[in-house]
């Protein structure tokens, strides 16, 4: 069985990130899952960790208490829980034993945040409900408040041959038949083609699902690690009526794909927050 254990090595990368910074800016970001190597060979060790913030691959540490589920799925279907501890990257060393496609996933507990505009017109995020923010804000006005639901996963290729030797036509199933595992998150991005199709210059097809159903006309964003500026995305496209989008991945490297869905809060919740925000990301390696 593949097992994860918390390690501290990657945590040194964010040694300069203060806890106050992590708390103060956290609500503006989405969580991501990454790995030391997204392409490896059976019998090797890898490191799975979490990313939080705008800067990729690492910006700020993550509060363990915010994490609901953190798991690794093997190609054969077994699942192992990954360790979390304190404020860190929650780096886990895992043994890659099987050939095929591993999926690392994380979900956060729902959280509230409120965006406040101060007297200088600057936006500030408070980790509080709308009612709590009113009590905290001395100067400024409340822009909006949200309950945030966040989901992320990373696709780890074990066995280098998975990324070579097959044409896109061979790899692509028909629409609605994903080649990668659907985890059942409330909001989820599912690559429709296997890693044979994740090659530079190709169109990478994904389907966005909301509560298990296709999310039509949903904006999908993508960027590769190294793209600047840090807060921007280099590709955007809406999904079609089946929730499917084709992303032109024009270069090799690690790509992050993101989608967000905003819904009005239920009437009984509007004193506490205005909208429900659902965010999903998926990380994968595009091969030459």
TrEMBL record:
Pfam families: DUF4198. Keywords: Membrane, Transmembrane. It comes from the Bacteria. This is Nickel uptake substrate-specific transmembrane region. It comes from Tautonia plasticadhaerens.
């Amino acid at each position: 069985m593949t097992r994860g254990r918390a390690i501290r090595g990657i945590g040194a990368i964010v040694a300069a990130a203060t806890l106050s910074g992590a708390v103060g800016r956290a609500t503006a970001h989405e969580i991501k899952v990454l790995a030391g190597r997204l392409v490896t060979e059976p019998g090797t060790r890898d490191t799975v960790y979490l990313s939080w913030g705008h800067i990729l691959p690492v910006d700020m540490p993550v509060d363990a208490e915010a994490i609901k589920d953190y798991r690794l799925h093997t190609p054969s279907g077994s699942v192992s829980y990954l360790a979390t501890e304190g404020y860190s990257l929650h780096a886990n060393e895992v043994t890659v034993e099987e050939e095929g496609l591993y999926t690392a996933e994380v979900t956060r507990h729902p959280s509230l945040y409120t965006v406040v505009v101060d007297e200088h017109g600057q936006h500030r995020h408070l980790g509080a409900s709308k009612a709590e923010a009113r009590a905290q804000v001395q100067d400024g006005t409340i822009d909006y408040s949200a309950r945030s639901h966040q989901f992320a996963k990373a696709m780890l290729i074990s066995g280098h041959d998975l990324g070579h030797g097959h044409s896109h036509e061979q790899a692509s199933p028909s629409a609605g038949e994903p080649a990668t595992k659907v985890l059942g998150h409330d909001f989820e991005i599912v690559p429709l083609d296997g890693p044979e199709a994740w090659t530079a210059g190709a169109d990478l097809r994904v389907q966005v699902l909301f509560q298990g159903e296709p999310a039509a006309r949903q904006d999908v964003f993508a960027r590769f690690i190294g793209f600047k500026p840090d807060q921007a995305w280099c590709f955007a496209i809406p999904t079609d009526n089946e929730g499917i989008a084709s992303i032109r991945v024009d270069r090799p490297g690690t790509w992050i794909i993101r989608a967000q869905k905003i819904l009005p809060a239920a009437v009984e919740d509007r004193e506490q927050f205005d909208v429900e925000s659902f965010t999903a990301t998926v990380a994968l390696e595009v091969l030459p």
